[in-house]
Amino acid sequence: MLNIGVIGCGAIGRDHIRRLTDIVPGCQVVACADYFEEAAIKVAAQYEGMKAYKTGEELIAAPEVQAVVITSSDPSHAGYVLEALKAGKQVFCEKPLAQNAEDCEKIIAAETAHGKRLLQVGFMRHYDRGYAEMKRIIDSGELGAPLMIHACHRNVSQPDGFQTEMGVSNVAIHELDICRWLLGDEYKNGQVLKVRQSACSTKGYDNPQIVLLETQSGARIDVEVQVADAYGYDIQCQVVCEKGTVNLPDPYAVVKRSNATRSFPILTDWKDRFIEAYDIELTHWVKTLEEKGEPDGPSAWDGYAACVAADTLNRSRGTNQFLPIEMMDKPALYK
């Protein structure tokens, strides 16, 4: 059994603890920690044999913890990842890997010093059946070369303290990752645009925004980012290829016919939209650690690439210019 410690006992942290306890085989959650110690104590009390630690650093240092899952607030990710790597422990970190590219580079340096991978980033869309099938079709070549991606990320609400830049660095970070994964291509340049603002959006941040990207091969990507006040949680993606298109399917839903209308429900919670992907993702992570001794899912390089793109896009805001997305040379560990 792989003994796991979870740092962060908020919504996604509690859900991952449930998942790792009830669904994922070959592991057990033996420890948890949270910035608010009371939250960790409350969660630990719900599970037999789980210990609550005062800090994430104490949890990482605990001898019974073999692997660390980081689901804490975004600004804390890089620090906990570096601490886990320093301890030589396997670590799964929810997105984003860090708040800026500089911290990602520190993480890459720390991991490459070990000579093997210890880190996986929680880009769960790689494990969504719809995206996986899109990737298979694109890679098969049956539709020819991919030319464009049209995508959107629409959400219902954001917590207090949300800022314009977070629409790219915290929300659209998923699109920044999944588009380069689907295309198998790195980004060349990018720009973010402020468009006509929704009358419903009066919280002080830009909403919606449009992200524009060009890849090294010349493919173009546009992403509508609507972080709040949408009709539901709606993720859309279409890849336009030389010989056809491939679309991300909507989540399965029963179609209702009544009162001369045909309707089906739209989800409002991201955890429900990708619930199966999360199950598959963490099951794969634990199984791969058992079989290979290191993860093979989204890497520190993937986290870095998304972060560099996000940093560049946020710098482009208000300039009306495409800015070059410049990355360091890719270490051999990630090739």
TrEMBL record:
SUPFAM superfamilies in the cross-refs: Glyceraldehyde-3-phosphate dehydrogenase-like, C-terminal domain, NAD(P)-binding Rossmann-fold domains
Q: Enumerate the spans annotated as Gfo/Idh/MocA-like oxidoreductase C-terminal domain.
A: 135-321
Q: Which UniProt keywords apply?
A: NAD, Oxidoreductase
EC code: 1.1.1.18, 1.1.1.369
Q: In what residue span(s) does the Gfo/Idh/MocA-like oxidoreductase N-terminal domain sit? A: 2-123
Q: Which InterPro entries match?
A: Gfo-Idh-MocA_inositol_DH (IPR050424), Gfo/Idh/MocA-like_OxRdtase_C (IPR004104), Gfo/Idh/MocA-like_OxRdtase_N (IPR000683), MI/DCI_dehydrogenase (IPR023794), NAD(P)-bd_dom_sf (IPR036291)
Q: Which reaction does it catalyse?
A: 1D-chiro-inositol + NAD(+) = scyllo-inosine + NADH + H(+); myo-inositol + NAD(+) = scyllo-inosose + NADH + H(+)
Taxonomy, superkingdom: Bacteria
Record carries keyword Oxidoreductase: yes
Q: In which pathway does it act?
A: Polyol metabolism; myo-inositol degradation into acetyl-CoA; acetyl-CoA from myo-inositol: step 1/7
Keyword Oxidoreductase tagged: yes
Q: What is the purpose of this protein? A: Involved in the oxidation of myo-inositol (MI) and D-chiro-inositol (DCI) to 2-keto-myo-inositol (2KMI or 2-inosose) and 1-keto-D-chiro-inositol (1KDCI), respectively.
Report the sequence similarity comment from the record: Belongs to the Gfo/Idh/MocA family.
Subunit-structure text: Homotetramer.
Listed name of the protein: Inositol 2-dehydrogenase/D-chiro-inositol 3-dehydrogenase
Instruction: List the top taxonomic levels of the source.
Output: Bacteria, Bacillati, Bacillota, Clostridia, Eubacteriales
